[in-house]
Every structure is written in C-alpha cells, then in structure tokens.
What does this fold into?
Amino acid sequence: MPSRRAQSSGLDFSPATPSANLFALLKPYTGWILLLTLVTLVANGFNLVVPQLTAHAIDAYTAHTLHLGSVILSFFFVALGIALFTFFQSIVQTIASERVARDLRNDISAKISVQEYATIDQLTPAKLLTNLTSDVDAIKTFVAQAISSLISSVFLIIGSCILLLMLNWRLALAVIAILPFIAGTFYVVLGRVRKLFLKGQQIIDWLNSVISESIIGASLIRLLNSQRIEEAKFEEAAAASRSVGLQIIGYFSLLIPIITFLSNMATLTILLLGGYFVIHGSMSLGSFTAFNNYLLILIFPIMIIGFMSNVIAQASASYDRIMGVLEQQDSKDEGTLENELSGTIEVSQLSLKHGEHATLKDVSFRIAPGTKNAIIGPTAGGKTQLLYVLTGLIQPSEGTILYDGQPINAYKKQRLHEQVGFVFQDSIIFNLTLRENIAFSTTVKDGDLQKAIDTAELHDFISTLPEGLDTIVSERGNSLSGGQKQRIMLARALALNPKILLLDDFTARVDTNTEHKILANVAQNYPDLTLISVTQKIAPIEHYDQVILLMEGEVLAIGTHQELMQSSPEYVQIYDSQKSTENYE
Amino acid sequence: MNSMKKNQSHISEAASLSYVLPTESSPQGKGTLQRAWGSLWPLLKTERKNLSIAGVSVVINSLATLLAPVVIARAIDVYVANHDFAGVLRYGFILFGIYIVAVFANYFQIKRMGTVGRGVLFKLRNELFLKLQNLPIAFFNQNKTGDLISRINNDTDKLNQFFAQALMQFIGNGFQIFGAAIFLLVLNWKLGLATLLPAFLVFVVTQLISEWVKRKSRAGLQSLGAMSAEVQESLNNFKVIIVFNRLDYFRTKFKEANQANYHASVWSGIASGVFTPLYTFASNLGQLIVLTYGLYLIMTGHLTIGLLIGYILYVNSFYNPLRQLATVWSSLQLALASLDRIQDVLSLESNMPVLHAEESDVQSRKGESVLEFKNVSFGYPDGKQVLHDVNFTLEKGKTYALVGPTGGGKTTTASLMARLYDPTEGTVLLRGRDIRTYDPAIRSEKIGFILQEPFLFTGTIRDNIVYGNAAYAECSDEELAHALNQQNLSGLIARFDEGLSTKVTGNADGLSLGQRQLIAFIRAALRKPELLILDEATANIDTVTEQLLDEILEQFPKETTKVIIAHRLNTIRNADEIFFVNAGSLTLAGDLEHAVDLILHGRRES
It folds into this structure.
C-alpha cells in the first residue's frame, strides 16, 4: 500500500481559498458585536466626565458655591460607574470572543466528523490540530481585541473628518489627502504579511507532526539513541518558525512607524498651512486651535488600527485555513438500505489504483453467508487494502462490491458498520476505560459486552485489574501487551454482535493456545457469523470453507485448503514454509 | 561493588517518581513581581543587546511623543499669534526632525522587542523538546501527546507575545510612574502622599488577586491542552471511529472538551479583565483625593488654586501609565501561567541517568556472557508487578527464544535488556558491566531491538533504514545499495513500489504492518548489533518471506547473539535455548518439544 499523500508534514504552500471574509463569520454574533461596541463607546465616553467634574468643582470654589460633600459623592459614584462599566465591557468582550471561538471549533469538528477516512488522512491530523487550536485562537483574539476598537475607530474617523470639513474644508482636505496613503500602506503590507502568517501556521502544523512523531516513536528513538536527530528536525522547524516570525516583525516594524509618521505629517501640515491661514487672516486662532484638537481625534483611531493590523492579518490568515476545512465536500451517505445482512458478499472486478500503481487488480470472489473465509498471501499483497475497500473506508477505482445483491454504497453507512465488525491489524486503543474501549460503539448492550469479553479470552486479564473493566488504559495502550491490545480490539468488534467479522492478521500477536480457544469461542458464541480472516498461518484455516490466495493485488487461487494444495504451487510453497512446526500447532 | 549498591538504592528511589504532569489549575507559586522577575530574567539574559537598544528606543520615542505637543503649542503661542510665518516654518522644521527621530526609535523598539520575543520562543521550544528527548519512555505512557504539543506550541507563544508586545510597555510605564511619583512628592509631599495612597492600595490588591488571576489563566491553558489531547487521539484513530460508527464520539468528546475550555477561558478572561477597572478606579480616586484634599489645603491657606490645577494635570501623568499597566499586568499573569506549564516539564528529571562506571567495571570481564539478568524484578508505575526475581545469562553467538502467553512479560524482559526501563530491583549486566553505566550511544550500537509495533518516520524508506545509523547517514545511494546487497537485503527493498525512495508517513497508514516490519528489520540488520532482539518482529510477515529473513539472520556474524520473541513456532525452531516466560518468571524450556508442551499445557496467568 503505497503512500497516498504527495506531501505530508512538510510545507505545502498551496493557496487556500482567496481571502475569505472574516466579517462574514461574525454575522450570527451581530447582537454581541453591537453590545460590545456600545459598551466600549459608553465606557470611553464616561471617562470624559471626570475632568468636567473637576473643572466644575474648581469653578464652584472660585464662585464660593462649593458644596464639598456633593462633589465627593458624585465624583465617587462616577468613578465607581466607570469601573463597573469597564469591567462589564471586558466581560462582554470575553464572552463574545469565546463564543465565536467555541462555535467555530464545533463547526470544524462537525465538519471533520462527516469526512471520509481518506480526507482526514490527507488533511493530516497535525494540520487539523492547528486549525482547532492556534487558528481559532487567532480569530478569538481578533474578536476580543480588534473588533470593538475597529468599529469605534471607523466611527471616530468618519465623525472627525466631518467635523474637520465643517470647520475648514481646505485644511480638512489637506489632512484627508493623507488617508489614502495610509490605506495604501496598510493594503500593501497586510497583503504580504497575510502570506507570512499562513506560512507561519503551516510551520505550526510541521512542529505538531515532528513532536507527535517523536512521542509515538519514543521507544525507537531511545533504542537508537537518536535524540539528536529528532532535536535537529525540531530545531529546523522551530528555526523556520522564527525566521517567518522575524520577517513578520520586519514588516510591522516598518508599517507602524510609517503610519505614525504619515499621521504626524498631517499635524505638521496643519501647523504650517493653518498657521499660514491664520497669519493671513482667513482663519481665526480659535478655530485653528479647535482644528488641532479635532485632528487628535482623527489620528488616535488611525494609530489604533495600526496596532491592531497584526491581529487582523493573523486572524484573516487563520480564517482562510479554517475555511479550507469548512469548505471540504461532505462525504455523502447516499445509502438508504437498512436491512439485515445475511453475510453474502460478491466482489467483482475490483481494482484499486494509487496513481500508476494498482494495489488490487481485477479481484473477484464470492462469500457465502455463515462461511469461514481466509485471505492469505505475501506481505504487501493487498490484503489489508481489500478489507478497507470491503468496509467502505476506501472507495475502489473500479469494480463492485455487493452485499446481498445490493451495492455497498446503497447501504446506510451506519447500518453497514453496525453489522460488519473489523479488527484492525495495528492496535488502536483509546485513553479511556477498558469498558469504553470495548463497548466503543454506543449500541453495545451489557450482555453483548460480556459475551465479547469471554470470547476474546479477556476475563482472566480483566479480573487481575483492581478496577476491572473500569480501569483506564494508559496513553495509546502503552502498558498493555501486544496480545492484550489485540484481544481488546477483537472484543470491540465482537461487541457489535456483527453479521460479518473481518480479521486483519488477528492471530499474529496471540499465542497459539489462546488463539485456539478464541477461535473455538467465536465458533460457539457466534455460530452464524460470516468470517473473513486475513492471516499468515495455514494450520488454523485448513477446515475453512474458502481460502483466497492474494498476491501482488491479484487473486491467484480460490478454493478450500485441499483444493489449493492440489491446484496452486504458490499455496503449497506457503504451506511448506510452515510445515516444519505444523505438528505442534 | 559497594558504590554500585549505593547507586542502586538511589535509582530505586528515583524509579518510584511519577512523570505525571500536573493537570489541575493550581500554580506553583504566587504571581508576584519578584517571582515574575525571577522566572523571566533567565530567559532574557542572552538578549541583553536587543533589550538595551529597545530600551533606549523606548525612551527616545516617549521623549519625542512628549516633545512634539510642546513644540506645536509654542509655535502657535509665539509665532502664529504674532503673525510670524518664518518662525512657524522654523518650528515646522524642528517638528519634522522630531518626527523623523520618532520613526527610527519606533522602528528599533518594535524590531528589537519582536526579535527578543522570537528568540525566547525559539529557545523555550527547543529546550522543551530537548527535555522530552531526555525523558524515558515511562513519561510518554503517563502524559497525553496533545497536551505536550500544546505546551510546546501554545504556551511558549504566550510568552513570545508578552515579550514582543507588553514588556517594553511595562518598562516604559513603570519608568513614567516612578518619575511622576517622585515629581508629585517633591512638588508637595503632603498632597503627594495623599495622591499615592490609592496606588498603594491597588498595589496591595494586585498582590492579593494576581495569584487568583494566574490560576484562572492556568486553568484556561490546561483546558486548551486537554482539548488538544482529545483532537490528537481522535484524529489519529479516525478509522476505528468511522468503522465503529462513532463519528459522534469525536463530536461529543470534542464538544465536551470545547465546552470545558469555553468555561475555563471565559473565567480566565474575566479574571484578566479585573485589573483595568481596578486601576481606573484607583486613578479616579486619586484625582478625587487631590481635589478634596487640595481644596482643604487652599482653604487652610497652604496651597493656591493655580498650583492645584497644575497638580491635577500631573496626577494624570502618574495614573495614565498606571491604567495602561493594568492590561500589561494581566498579560504578565498569562505569560507566567504559561511559563509554569512549561516549567512543569522542564523541571522533570530522567530517573534513568547514566551511572558512573568503576575502573574495574570498565575493563569488563571478557567472558562469553553478553547479557545477564541478576535478580531482576520490574513493575510499571501503575502498580502491577511484571517480573519477579528473574535470572539468566545470554552467551555470545547463541540464539535464544522467549515464548509464552500474551501478557506474560516477554516484551518487558526485552525492554529491560535494551534499557528502555530500569529494573525496580536487581541488575542487568551488559558484557559483565551494569547496563546503566554505558553511554547510550555505545549501548544502542551494541543492542538492536525490533519493536513489536515498528514505527516509521515521515520520509522515504531510505530515510527510515539509515535512521540513527551514523555509518550510512552520509553515504551515496550506490554505497547504500552495495551495503544492502552484501547483507542480502536488496530483495526486500525491491518489494516496495519505488524501492528506497518509496514515501512513508509517520502515522504509517500508508503501509501495512508487515511492510513496516520489513523496514524495521532492514533498519536493525544494517546496524549489525552484537545483541539483536526481535520482539514478534515478523509476526505480520508471510511465512515465505519470513524464511528469507531467517536466512538473512543466519548470515549475520556468528558472534551475534539473538533473542527472538515469537508465537509462531517455526520462527524459533533454530533457537539454541528456549525460555518460557509466564506470570513474570522465566523457565528454561530445554528443547522445542518441551517448550510446546509448556505453551499448550503450562500454568498460565495472563
């Protein structure tokens, strides 16, 4: 089974959807955003009252009308009001941003949960992890810090422009002429920085996968004493991250001073031009002073936008990445059939191609209900792939699979998975209790659970555990032996009470004695089960109803053990390779 | 021997240490300023140059910001009012000059502090990763991968943000506050003291609530770690989730973790939001005190109204930076909470150090014994004893087989041979010398171990077979091909579609277990170890190919000692000795028939 991915943890600079609109995301939260903006404006407006209170008190003192008690009282309550309002603002801001983040995460996870296995494999868990954490965080910061100041800044800019125009339109035009330059600078810099932020997030994906591989491969690394190699890999990614980070800083260390400088140029223009107007009598000194004051109101929000540009650029880059996931095609479940499976499977002319190379070539066979079938053949012969296709984990390139005469895709996926148990070759154990690991499907009843445990010969093992079935299995099942993990996986499939059971090399890690017992248990406890077992060992399958010999993706021979011993030299070769100890097993 | 005993007791003490990282939200210390300084300064030491340049730039930038309005005011008061345009022009030039200086100061401030933040981020990430590499595998059995990733990627970034954005503001504000305070006291010490009183109260309250804020911040980060762990586990096991109809599992588990994170983050946000209103309140109280106390002083004839108006303006220059400090302070708490989570990992020490070897030990007894277990017992930290008082010796050039029921202790025995774990009691001797005294590089050269579930790194097959093998790291394709040929391994490589350049991925869903076992076999064979351990290394490989692997193994130098763990009896038929491993003890089985008898009828406990 060759790699299905052209790229993996490395960098992939394929363009995401061209700049998705960040503001569209906020539509459902219009209420929150309005509240946030309102509270921000009020809290800031409140602050303007304090100097007036002070001024009034002093005026009253000079006019000998001062009533100190009432001044203290009103001052105190205003101060308290400001504090409460500011606190309220921060609460609204927190709740609004956390809600956006939470809902976005739920959307992404809902999207992920309707994807096909191949899509997740292709998107890579490392990237999806970044999407769900770091990318969503960037958007959260945007909502928390930028949105209210952006909205109020826009209001302030428009408002002060109008005031300036009303006061002196010639001066105002001179000032407003600077705005396009500022906007232009933003546009150019933010466009470039967005690309860098995208690259930065991709490096986070890369870091994720290096860390995760170094943890899953921890034993190997320690055995080979190759920690330095892993450190070098990590440092390469970390250094790439630093380099992108420094490039971003490079842009902002230019952008912010330039914006500041351009706004300062507005001030300078006013001083010179306004001074000229006043000196030549076309403007009063009073309106000149007022003009200068309003100018400050214009410049302040421009600076705020400058400081927020970092947050905006990062959020927009992250939103693009998230949209890339949210816009994935859902895997369509067009199946409607929900009937009970008898166990009849017809596979005809099945091919599976990965680019040029075919892992399955024109595979055809028929499985009769209630029979025991074995698939045997050399490593890399396509056996595991065949099971994946039979469960719909992978779609075949050509050919059909019929369950009870109906194509596999005509069945409702859920119904199919309920009736087809699959014991994977590699152990997949969750960091949950044993009970949750075995009764992984929600439909499992207590009786079925117990039957599955007994069949998989797990009762002795479980009885040695102080907390029995409620023992939590350690991360990735690391404290369990290979055979224990394998039997838990079997119990998990059997607990479904399946009509069809697929075993992928199940017996490889279980000792012969236990294997005999388990197979006998299965025959006894699940008499009607249709079994398809991928295996290496011939001895246990000699009495099977059908043996399929799969080699390099092709069916070489089909028949019972006796028939294949007669007809297939390749089968005989495999048989011979096991003969020497066969009498023991 | 004596010193060895001492070491032994030391080790068994250390072995009982747990590697579980704290996941609750209690921080390790109080979030006070002194502690903050103590934790942050070591990170900044190497950044002195950038810090000084940024510091100077901050001062210049603030001076320019303060100076510009003064220049404008003067230009208006003196020249505009007197209709002297030449003077206005002259001041315009001065102003222009100030703005130019500000541009450069601003540039250096942002650039240098950003560089410091990135430098710290880089350093911390590497340190964390280095620490992970130096911890034994027991650590990884006890902690969630997703949470570790979150610590390395997210927590470090919180510190980066603090350094890049908040630190200079912190220093600048602190500077202004200090200066203004002195100015206020010099101007009128009575009024000054009264003004500073609310600031003092705020200082006390800050000390009291900082810890609470930090705890909430930590809870937020912990829940983010827990969420990452959920994502990591579910997505890496996605095929089981699909086949068992548990797409809802991912959705609901994630939803739970997400909701928990929402809850913790809202609290963390609210806690962080406490400082700003508090400081604003103090600032307004300060003004109120100045106003009332000032008016009282005027009434008693100690102050003039003009001085009071001036004083009120100066009070603002004390309280405005203090108010800004509130934001910085909450981001400091977040940074400290992150640093705590980082230090949770950094403070762990491996309980498997390389012991100092005695002179006499180093000149190891040149006997035939390659590996020896002396009274070895072992149990995992979660309690269950796996091996009891195991004794055996492996001799040079012989092949040993370990057989027995699953869960009997075969893999554990093999893991102790390669020092993946240290025994809780007893000693493992490699070439007559305590295995713990070997340098890991030498140990890994001597011992080859093919793991039950082989792991492949993302890359090509070539990358994987020469992985960690200094001899072939730099060699050309031809040299590698030659080496493979010599050991009859080329045929195995040819089974992959694109030979050496076939791509593989870390989660290895691209290759079947049998294929991965083949690659692991080639990887181990190329290393030519003295002791080769095969832990069900060929269990998923077809028996015809397995015969081929047997032939390859037989062509190994005859000094090579082999330990084979297998369920398939044909795998072990060539063994010189067979050990039956069951319920934590090893029994010599003699010949194959006796072994089979034990397997089929022996006492079993698994």
Remarks:
- Residues 1-19 of chain A have pLDDT under 50 and may be disordered.
